[in-house]
Specification:
The chain has 261 residues and is α/β, with parallel strands linked by helices. It is built from 8 helices and 7 strands. It has one domain: 3-Layer(aba) Sandwich (Rossmann fold). Helix 1 crosses helix 8, helix 3 runs parallel beside helix 4 and helix 4 packs parallel to helix 5. The longest helix is centred in the middle third of the chain and has 29 residues.
Length: 261
């Protein structure tokens, strides 16, 4: 199928935010490699459609866990509800995340702060807390956090979102330190411009405005990022891909982009 070296002990992957974008692409990519999949998201109809695709096309075993990562109690109940055969999660992909608006920091609605911080930061903390102890007990596992180029430097209209992604980097680095005496690995994947529903969410459903973000360049796709995730997971056990910054060729930083009009 490909040239990846796969550690056959890694069998089950949990993907948050799997209903679309990078999360959906990761689910497809791991299904191709024969992983069993636990898929989380808020949109049950989309998760059902993805499950059908993965089972029919790849013969994948799939369990759906529809909950909002902002709801810690719901997350705990969902993980606890997994059948015993599914509790041994080998790869956790903390992908669920979002951005709202392009407001100045002093004009951003407090409700928007809460949504971004609770999803992008607390969601990662919650799932990491629920899943990582089991990995430690089994002596194997890999935590993948989907960060962002926005975590490297703030940009206009994105201070709260950028702060949450800087937190993802700090959480990834801190977890890697905490796990240094274990076989577990931690990877922070930081994409640049990826054409998913990210900008549609930012602009609250305004697809025309969202499309303009990518006009004039070839952005990354969710599948491109999923390939990076697979590369990290499939590295030999003694190799830890700690951090990957991945951008379109026409992007140099979060704000330096070549648009070919």
């Amino acid at each position: 199928m490909n040239n990846y070296r796969m550690d056959m002990e890694l069998k089950t992957v949990l993907v948050t935010g799997a209903a679309s974008g990078i999360g959906e692409a990761c689910a497809i990519r791991f299904a191709r490699e024969g992983f069993s999949l636990i898929l989380n998201g808020r949109n049950l109809s989309r998760l059902d459609a993805l499950k059908q695709l993965l089972t029919e096309k790849y013969g994948a075993k799939v369990v759906l866990l529809p909950f909002d990562v902002r709801d810690g109690a719901a997350a705990r109940d969902a993980i606890d509800s997994l059948p015993d055969a599914w509790k041994s999660i080998d790869v956790l992909i903390n992908n669920a995340g979002l951005v709202l608006g392009l407001d100045k920091e002093y004009e951003t609605a407090p409700d928007d702060w809460d949504v971004m911080i609770d999803t992008n930061v607390k969601g990662i903390l919650t799932l990491t807390r629920l899943v990582t102890p089991g990995m430690i007990g089994r002596g194997r596992g890999h935590v993948i956090n989907i960060g962002s180029i926005a975590g490297d430097a703030a940009y206009a209209g994105g201070s709260v979102y950028c702060a949450t992604k800087a937190a993802v980097k700090a959480l990834s680095d801190g977890l890697r330190i905490d796990l240094v005496n274990t076989p577990l690995r931690v990877t922070n994947v930081k994409p640049g411009m990826v054409e998913t529903e990210f900008s549609i969410t930012r602009f609250r459903g305004d697809k025309e405005r969202a499309n303009k973000v990518y006009a004039g360049l070839k952005p990354l796709t969710g599948a491109d990022v999923a390939e990076v995730v697979m590369f990290a997971v499939s590295a030999p056990p003694h190799v830890q891909i700690a951090e990957v910054l991945v951008m379109p060729t026409s992007q140099a930083t979060a704000t330096v982009v070549n648009y070919e009009l």
